[in-house]
Design a protein that fits this description.
Blueprint lengths: L12 E4 L8 E7 L3 H8 L12 E6 L5 E10 L10 E7 L2 H13 L3 E2 L4 H8 L5 H12 L3 H12 L1 H25 L9 H22 L8 E7 L5 H9 L17 E6 L4 E6 L9 H16 L2 E7 L13 E5 L6 H12 L4 E5 L8 H10 L5 H4 L6 H22 L4 H19 L5 H8 L7
Parallel strand pairs: 1-6, 7-9, 7-10, 10-11, 11-12
Antiparallel strand pairs: 1-2, 2-5, 3-4, 4-5, 8-9
Helix pairs in contact: 4-5, 6-7, 6-14, 7-13, 13-14
The structure holds guanosine-5'-triphosphate (GTP) and magnesium ion.
The site of magnesium ion (MG) has 5 residues, from helix 8.
């Protein structure tokens, strides 16, 4: 695949913005300095088209053969997604029409766009910053409501504006320090640098807050591990949720040995759910290996759900990081069930409800609870770090800042401190795309689909 960043921004690019399958409509997007001119050639009009106005038009190939009767809209720079001149053709959705119109536009000098090239141009033209460009990719790739919400919140740019204001404050401090270094007469003796020490402390607190509030688990699939003592109904629950028999179930305890994963695409959240070997004193080497794997899975889970059988409750080992739910609720009278539920509610573990795979009671509620477990609302998502790339850079910025503050307190000279400050600014800047390295841009835009 051609590299996203090698081509020139002077090129006029073309791509189909809608999916490859036959649909009622298909949209071809043409962007770049020649877009309007090329648009005029395939869809001539007597007068210059108004920006942002849909118009019915006929589209011709270079031999004046009619390709389609379609809608055309011009979006004049800079008021377009990419920031340069854009022409969109809203065609009938047959793939052959898309192919012929694209080919014609290429004959007039446009070239095929690379993945993410439209968004890359939007970024280069300052329409979006890097976190927002990443959010566009997430938005397109979203497969659940939760992913959609996360991407939408990032696109709004609260994280960017929080980080930009931190970078601005740091840059102001750096400028002052450089002035103090360059001009001995700069008024530094009146507590200017000491004042900066306090400000840097505050900025560090804000960075730490972002790190501790980060939720890199909210994008993509969530790993849920079903665990508990043997025979509590873990495999039965997995089969019930999967709607088919995916794993073996038996009256004998110790049926499941290997962890088995089943993926669900729920409305709210995508899950990978793991069935695991029941945890007990192992009676064989083989069983012990299975139980070890269960523990490994629990350690990596976004949610480990310890199943407690209503008829024979076995609670999780002390200190194990799990939530709890009651299975086989059909085997207990309602009063006894309430008492068990109350006991779990009062425990240190989060209690997620009771269910019976036998009669279906509580399954729907459990699904709902799991689905929304630790998902964040619109407001809570504002400004939250959800990407590993951002979190890593924040941690690097934090490390440098800690080092800088210690050096300051140790009486280090301003020129050395200024170098640390510069590093800190760079790390934070890379998140939003200030002075970002080309490799980082390549990384971000290589995940896009063509046409966006
Ligand atoms: N009454 C009742 N029996 C259930 C329920 N769920 C499972 N069982 C029975 O409990 C037994 C054990 O079920 P499994 O799903 O194999 O339990 P497990 O936790 O996977 O067991 P291991 O793989 O041995 O750890 C089977 O006989 C199931 O039919 C339930 O909701 N109610
Ligand atoms: Mg099992």
């Amino acid at each position: 695949m051609q590299h996203a960043l090698t081509p020139s921004f002077q090129d006029t690019i073309v791509a189909c913005a809608t999916g490859p399958a036959t649909g009622a409509l298909a949209i071809i997007r043409l962007a770049g300095p020649e877009a309007i001119q090329i648009g005029q050639k395939v869809a001539p009009s007597k007068r210059r088209r108004e920006s942002h106005r849909l118009e019915l038009t006929e589209i011709f190939d270079p031999n004046h053969n009619l390709l389609d009767e379609a809608m055309i809209v011009e979006m004049h720079a800079p008021r377009s997604y990419t920031g340069d001149d854009v022409v969109e053709f809203h065609l009938h959705g047959a793939p052959i029409i898309v192919e012929r119109v694209t080919h014609t536009l290429q004959q007039y000098g446009a070239r095929l766009a690379n993945p993410g090239e439209y968004t890359l141009r939007a970024y280069v033209h300052g329409k979006l910053d890097l976190t927002q460009a990443e959010a566009v990719a997430d938005l397109i790739a979203a497969r659940s409501e939760s992913e959609l919400r996360v991407a939408g919140a990032q696109l709004k740019g609260k994280l960017s504006s929080d980080l930009n204001s931190l970078v601005d404050s740091l840059e102001t401090i750096l400028r002052d320090w450089q002035a103090v270094l360059d001009f001995p007469e700069y008024p530094s003796g009146d507590g200017l640098v000491d004042g900066h020490r306090a400000k840097l402390g505050q900025i560090r607190c804000k960075i730490q807050e972002k790190v501790s509030d980060a939720r890199v688990d909210v994008l993509g699939c969530r790993e849920i591990v079903l665990c508990g003592a043997p025979n509590v109904g873990k495999s039965t629950l997995l089969n019930t949720l999967a709607g088919e028999q995916r794993v073996l179930v038996d009256v004998e305890p110790g049926t499941t040995r290997d962890p088995v994963r089943v993926d669900f695409e729920q409305h709210v959240q995508r899950w990978s759910m793991w069935d695991t070997a029941g945890i007990r004193e192992a009676s064989s080497h083989l069983e012990k290996m299975g139980i070890d794997l269960t523990h490994q899975r629990i350690g990596r889970a976004d949610l480990a759900l310890w199943i407690v059988a209503a008829d024979k409750p076995v609670l999780p080992p002390e200190g194990l990081d799990v939530a709890v739910a009651i299975s086989k609720s059909d085997l207990l009278a309602s009063e006894a069930l309430s008492a068990l539920a109350e006991r779990l509610e009062l425990s240190d573990w989060t209690y997620l409800g009771a269910f019976s795979a036998q009669n279906g009671n509580g399954i729907e509620d459990l699904t709902q609870t799991i689905s929304t477990y630790k998902t964040l609302g619109e407001d809570e998502l504002a400004g939250v770090v959800v990407r590993e790339r951002h979190l890593e850079l924040l941690k690097l910025a934090d490390d440098v800042l800690v080092q800088l503050l210690a050096a300051y307190d140790g009486g280090q000279s301003l020129d050395v401190l200024a170098m640390d400050l510069q590093d800190c600014i760079e790390y934070l800047g890379q998140i939003v795309g200030r002075n970002v390295k080309v490799e980082v841009l390549n990384q971000v835009f290589s995940h896009f689909c063509i046409g966006k």
